[in-house]
UniProtKB/TrEMBL annotation:
It comes from the Eukaryota. InterPro entries: DIOX_N, IPNS-like_FE2OG_OXY, IPNS-like_sf, Oxoglu/Fe-dep_dioxygenase_dom, Plant_2OG-oxidoreductases. This is Oxoglutarate/iron-dependent dioxygenase. GO terms for molecular function: dioxygenase activity; metal ion binding. Coiled coil: none annotated. It comes from Corchorus olitorius.
Amino acid sequence: MAATFPSVSQPSQASLTDSPPKLTSIKALAAELSGLTSIPPGYSFQTIPNIVNDEALSVSEANESIPTIDFSLLTSSNPEERSKVIQDLAKACQDWGFFMVINHGVPESMMKAIIEACRAFFELPEEEKQEFEGKHVLDPIRCGTSFNVSVDKVLFWRDFLKFFMHPNFHSPTKPSRLSEIALEFSKRVRQVAREVLRGISESLGLELDYIDKALDLENGVQILAANLYPPCPQPELAMGLPPHSDQGLLTLLIQNEIGGLQVKHQEKWINVNPIPNSFLANIGDHIEILSNGKYKSVLHRAVVNNKETRISIAMPHGPALDAVVSPASELRDSVSNLPVYKAMKYREYLEFQQSSKLDGKSALERIRLTTTKDYV
């Protein structure tokens, strides 16, 4: 039997400041806090100094635009067009680690449908959602709150639903249309991800199919991670998700019209304003490992607001669970020919990262073999 979240009784203003919160979904908690002006201390990052890395970094006011990659040119039969977009992709990976993917061929109606289907899941009664709570980080379906409540010192203002879509497809049975929509969406998104990874492989000077073959992407892991960030009475004290990099090779993300994602770029946080009908793509830790540090995964975080609910759907794409990921020999340091990261099975990395505190790039640092500043 799945464990249940204790219900939250109607709190008084005093109880919000004097007692720790009972564990519940943020959606339920936000409803309980409706009309109040403060959050329980267990959700306030003021209570534990420096819990969020780089919390004090300023948010850039400049109109800085994340690079854009035209997917249609990646699949172009015109060599000059493809060569140009591969150069653009290399620059985007080196300079930002993030980029928008446009003209990808996934219908806008399908992107909106999956967002609404996930919204419907979060609107289910609490006891129905708890049927899919899950126990282990590699359980095919999991839902819950925060990131990892067993180790989080402060809880995040976030509910989540995660399920594996490849190599074997899983989905909650509720709401009724979620599974059908997610199955078709997963197929279309995976095609986009594999083609982008072919471009990244080529941009690194590797064979077009190097990543695909070396990491067995035919059996590669594809996960759908839906995030719900309800309005927060004190958004300046809470955090949707702290600064972190993504495990895996490539994450493709969509969201509703509400902003909240910030990317760390040149020591400042940049507000991300996605182009309509685009995917926001970012390279993961395993591209950094494979490229031996040439391309780096980038810190990003989710902030919250006090007015509107944000929904995002992130789709990480990784190697096969049993694939061993190590720096490509062709990309090792030309002077020492040494790898910067040790080889590690993807399953082991995924289990470690998902069961630990979400703390910057700590999972990647765990397998770093050198502190050479050129790779930091």
